[in-house]
UniProtKB/TrEMBL annotation:
<dbReference type="Pfam" id="PF00583">
    <property type="entry name" value="Acetyltransf_1"/>
</dbReference>
<dbReference type="InterPro" id="IPR053144">
    <property type="entry name" value="Acetyltransferase_Butenolide"/>
</dbReference>
<dbReference type="InterPro" id="IPR016181">
    <property type="entry name" value="Acyl_CoA_acyltransferase"/>
</dbReference>
<feature type="domain" description="N-acetyltransferase">
    <location>
        <begin position="4"/>
        <end position="141"/>
    </location>
</feature>
<dbReference type="InterPro" id="IPR000182">
    <property type="entry name" value="GNAT_dom"/>
</dbReference>
<protein>
    <submittedName>
        <fullName>GNAT family N-acetyltransferase</fullName>
    </submittedName>
</protein>
Length: 141
């Protein structure tokens, strides 16, 4: 694999790629409006994964930088899957200095449990204490 670079520089993010992936290819945000993606990025700590200056992966963390974080919208473009990009991307998220010492770090995944387990994620210790409002098709007309 070429030299992988992971950055939190918001200016480097390829918003067209991120919106296209989330709205057309993700299973969790299909149909999401570009304005919603931009607002989410502007209010999150974002990570881009780049090969030869081209973005190939993305992750964002919503956090108060003190007690809580939520990892969301993690993806790697299809052509780069299976080459360690997601492992490096999640490792960079977990090593970020502003995300240390949090009481709770959460995420939701339907198919990448082993990736996140490497970083200490487990099913909720007290699932009965968690609640949610979930609208899976909110962006689909």
């Amino acid at each position: 694999m070429d030299q992988l670079h992971i950055s939190t520089e918001r200016e480097a993010l390829d918003l067209d790629l991120i919106h296209q992936f989330l709205s057309e290819r993700s299973t969790w945000a299909r149909g999401i409006p570009r304005a919603t993606v931009e607002r989410a990025i502007n209010n999150s700590l974002c990570f881009g994964a780049y090969l030869d200056g081209r973005q190939v992966g993305f992750a964002r963390v919503t956090t108060d930088y003190a007690t809580f974080a939520y990892l969301a919208d993690v993806f790697v473009v299809e052509a780069q899957r299976g080459q360690g990009v997601s492992k490096a991307l999640v490792a960079a998220v977990m090593a970020h200095p502003d995300l240390q010492g949090l009481r709770r770090f959460m995420l939701a995944t339907s198919d990448a449990h082993s990736l996140y387990a490497r970083h200490g994620f487990t099913p909720p210790a007290r699932p009965a204490s968690l609640m949610e409002r979930y609208f899976p098709d909110i962006y689909v007309n």
